[in-house]
Amino acid sequence: MTYLETAAQFYSEVAQTPQVGLCCVQSTPLQLPGLKVPLAMQEMNYGCGTTVHPTELGKQPTVLYVGVGGGLEALQFAYFSRRAGAVIAVDPVAAMREAATSNLATAVAENPWFDKSFVEIREGDAFNLPVADASVDIVAQNCLFNIFEPEDLTRALKEAYRVLKPGGRLQMSDPIATRPIPAHLQQDERLRAMCLSGALTYEEYTQRIIAAGFGQIEIRARRPYRLLDTQTYNLETPLLLESLDSVSFKVAIPEDGACIFTGKTAIYAGSEPFFDDAAGHILQRGIPATVCDKTAAKLASVKPTEIIITDSTWHYSGGGCC
Ligand SMILES: C[S@@+](CC[C@H](N)C(=O)[O-])C[C@H]1O[C@@H](n2cnc3c(N)ncnc32)[C@H](O)[C@@H]1O
């Protein structure tokens, strides 16, 4: 059996017998006015953060949701798009597709605004998405890509890139590891399927997104997720996992490298009214300007005493619309 088959078997089990709190860090999902989340769907909240960013969903985007789980985020995306076929949710596990179909039928009964046609569930997997090239505004996945081995993660990222329209967005939430996960845990297929041992470090995770072609990444949230303790996981020191919510844009990678926004700002503190780096960044004295990490490093090296770079807040929601 391959590790992907082990994962499919695991998700077939937890589709039929929900495990409350399997992956999620928040017990209550995002609350939206007029949205009633069925209890069974809530119990199958197997995501580690959120991929649904309400202020960015105003234009009824077409969303391809990979790994439907109990259907919670498909329903939340449908809440914003509210049109037939706007959300296509894909899953290779038959029991999971059945559970999501049943939960969404309950949601129709509990939400007057929600129509069955708003979410279409299709058989398929992350490596072979059943939609045409450049056909969707958003690809979203929550707590799935982290279970893939690195080369498979790259395949899944490239497949997401293929189906996105130019300028489209890959919205992800995944665990990341604060140091590389030791091989004995990485090789444990059940732990990997449970989103506990496949996580990459922040650097490797973001580099793989860029290597798949995405020119801009924005970090929406980064928070503690799970602690792998020494006794249970046979480690010398505990290993903290974090969850990372990100939005990656299908835009060209600039010549000097991709832009990653983590919430840093640059503040000019010199004697002139403003500082112009002649590369498109004008800083007014005393006013924080949001910059990507690449620009932050460049500005700090040009004027180390006159430009202050603030720390990453790990929350940035500055760009992109569809
Ligand atoms: C951790 S659950 C997350 C479910 C959902 N995103 C949520 O937030 O509740 C992973 C989901 O991915 C599905 N899955 C497993 N292998 C997959 C694959 N190769 N391609 C797409 N989905 C897969 C599982 O059946 C399950 O529905």
TrEMBL record:
It comes from the Bacteria. Signal peptide: none annotated. Pfam families: Methyltransf_11. Residues 64-170 form the Methyltransferase type domain. One of its GO terms (biological process) is methylation. Keywords: Methyltransferase, Transferase. The keyword Methyltransferase applies. Transmembrane segments: none annotated. This is Arsenosugar biosynthesis arsenite methyltransferase ArsM. The lineage of its organism: Bacteria, Bacillati, Cyanobacteriota, Cyanophyceae, Nostocales.
